[in-house]
Amino acid sequence: MSGDAPLSAAEKTLSVLEALADHSRIADIADASGLPKPTVHRILQTLVQRGFARSDGRGGYLGGPRILSLAGRFLQRLDLAEHVRPTLRALQERTGWTVHLALLSGDEAVYVVKLEGTRPYHLASRVGMSLRLHCTSIGKAILAAMPDDEVRALAGRAGLPARTPNTITDPDDLLLELADVRARGYAEDREENEAGVRAVGAAVFNHTGEVVGAVSAASLVEFAEAPRELPDLVVRAAAEVSRALGAT
């Protein structure tokens, strides 16, 4: 680690704790934290005493039970929808479109936030409503973050029913569409879920890099005027939500 001022004891301890998430050997933790081995060893001993670390029995260290306990208690108090609402509100204000956050639930996704757009209409979506993955921008953004074999398996379980004449109903066509989504970084719903509605969506990831949902901005086609940077705005909002979930 670099910097003009010496690290405080708290900063040293946090550096070791962060390094412990990816390393177990003292030498590796020292390299990752930029601290001398004796300092790392001393801090690890304190963490073991307090239950934040434990010996793996082979000269290395692992996270201790108090880390899981604290994480669980914080997660119980974390209302994700409220935590990320300012990010979603900013997207809604920049675009004027209706903004959604949906989380993956089995073979579907469920809306957990909906912020109405500025136009005098209301989309049929609502918090708590489930949505198909193959025909929505949120769903296609989620599927694009999965391997093709998982997508085929999901399509086999859930089917690819036609919601409108534009819905993709063939697995091979869906995989081609998802390849395009991966290439450009966002998904589009071109009146595939509901006639007269278009949307742009981007995936949301958790601290392990696993896709857990997506953010979208949607509008009636007749009112679908939006900033040229709309896809970038949606992607940035999804990235901010991901960071709120611990993604790097």
Automatic annotation (TrEMBL):
Annotated HTH iclR-type domain residues: 7-65
Pfam families: HTH_IclR, IclR_C
GO molecular function: DNA binding; DNA-binding transcription factor activity
Coiled coil: none
Residue ranges occupied by any IclR-ED domain in the UniProt entry: 66-247
Residues that span the membrane, as ranges: none
Keywords tagged on the record: DNA-binding, Transcription, Transcription regulation
Protein's GO biological process: negative regulation of DNA-templated transcription
SUPFAM superfamilies in alphabetical order: GAF domain-like, Winged helix' DNA-binding domain
Listed InterPro entries: GAF-like_dom_sf, HTH_MetabolicPath_Reg, Tscrpt_reg_IclR_C, Tscrpt_reg_IclR_N, WH-like_DNA-bd_sf, WH_DNA-bd_sf
PANTHER family associated with the record: HELIX-TURN-HELIX TRANSCRIPTIONAL REGULATOR, ICLR FAMILY (PTHR30136), HTH-TYPE TRANSCRIPTIONAL REPRESSOR ALLR (PTHR30136:SF24)
Name used for this protein in its record: IclR family transcriptional regulator
